[in-house]
Design brief:
Structural class: alpha+beta
Shape: globular
Oligomer: single chain
Largest sheet: 7 strands, mixed
Length: 157
Amino acid sequence: MPRLIPLATALAALVAVPALAAPKQTVMPENPEARAFQEQFGFSDAVVHGDTVYLSGVVAGAPPAGADPVEHYARTFERIGAILARAGSSWDDVLDITTFHTDIDASLTPLSAAKNRYVKAPFPTWTAIGVRRLYEPTAVVEIKVVARLTAKAKGKR
């Protein structure tokens, strides 16, 4: 006996096929040295596929002695914002944030304060993970973001 597929399921599958078939678009650093590093190790600042923007993790080192840690982490969020903009997205479009901390007790409060300058309600999901170390030996935090394309950017693609 043939199996019947509900019409809504069949239509959803047909709509999803073009997005899956579309090639991904990469966003590489504008700085030639950073671009060379990423090409050497084979990764992009961001990848856009369909309506979703996936950012590679962005690291922050420990705040220098006497520096305001909130301001220090805010620079990392500024960098992420610039990558989002180059990819056709913004902080308003962020769906998910994952942060990795080598000392979660020391970094979580100032990092959260910096994050809250950029991330407003309705809030994305956020997972904070304590780790033993990060790839960059001086890094204490790495921030990974998934966003959607900004509505204006969708029409340009």
